[in-house]
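Supplementary Methods, section 5.1.

A reviewer requested that the exact input to the structure prediction be made available. We therefore reproduce it here, unchanged from the version used in the analyses.
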Amino acid sequence: MAENSEYAELFGGEAFFGTRGVKKNGLATDIVVLTPNERQLIDTMLDALKTPSPEICAGIRVRLADMEHLALCIARFPSLLEQNVIMGEMRNRVALIDLLTAQHEGDKVLFLPSKATLGKSFLVAKFHTFLRLLRVAHRTGLPEPVVAQLESTTNTVLFTLMAEDVYLSLLDDKALSAEVRRQIAMALIILWEYRNDSLIQDIAPVLREAWDARKNLAPIFGTMMGSSELVLMAMELGATWNAFVAARVAHEDVRTALEEFLFGLSFEHIRQLRRILGEKGVHAIDRSEISAYLGIDVKTDLHTDSRDFYMQYSVRRDNARVRRRLNYPGPRSTLEDYYMSFMLVQHNGTQFDAVFARSAPPPADAKGTQEG
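The structure derived from this sequence is encoded token-by-token as follows.
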């Protein structure tokens, strides 16, 4: 890893890079199949199961080999951090950042590099692999510390997968400055290149704790303000979350996005329910009564399955995109979007600026394109 050290320091050391190969310029450009911490965790699990369950160990090794093979196939596509000339066209990350920060309506998927689109399948496979490992750990009675580490790792993979959606949503946010949006674009490119994200290591535990705190709360669906719930969440989530709430919750969009997160309802349903409860003079209802008051089947139950977190996030994300596109009232981004943009600003983009400083930009007359 000596050749990696300069860039590994930028992205969080070996815990970011894992142990993959290095290309000729010293910059690792392979997908991180397993970080050293993930590898150590799996080795611990295999060691505990090798005598009582050798067939399970064999299955785990086969699955890991499949992930490795998938990553190697994706790594054959051009790096997003290197400059290449293909078919007479120069392709580089500066051109890709320009493309990502250009605010055009519609899905950009056909304009994105193949490595960017293929890599998402790797993360989905990695998530399912760790979810399977977690289930095996529960069934075989592995020690609680191992189970807890597997659960934490599974959640981190999930939030890394979700980070791509968050970054893409933030790139469409016209309220963000051009500099912040370029930092977000660079963060997205790094995520696409390695399918790992050092910022997520800090963000994932807070978002998961927020989800768990929300599950443990019993919002009073009367005033629909959630103020008591917000206080309880602040007590549980610590300094970083409190700093975010203190800095951003006064903004109307952030406040309403927080309400959507707390209550598990869309902005539109919250507004409708407030009106109905006000007209009927009802001060408090529980979750089971919401569908009856709204006259439609509304999903407000909460599950422990981490996939449910992603599903409910995706609903709020899609609703926000519609409001933004059609200029409807309500939050234009999700709570996760606002929190991650806050964290990016706090980090001040230093790791991304350092990447730019390591490599000279292309000539002014050869900005290039990104394809393939």
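Residues 144-171 form the longest helix (28 residues). These observations are discussed further in the main text.
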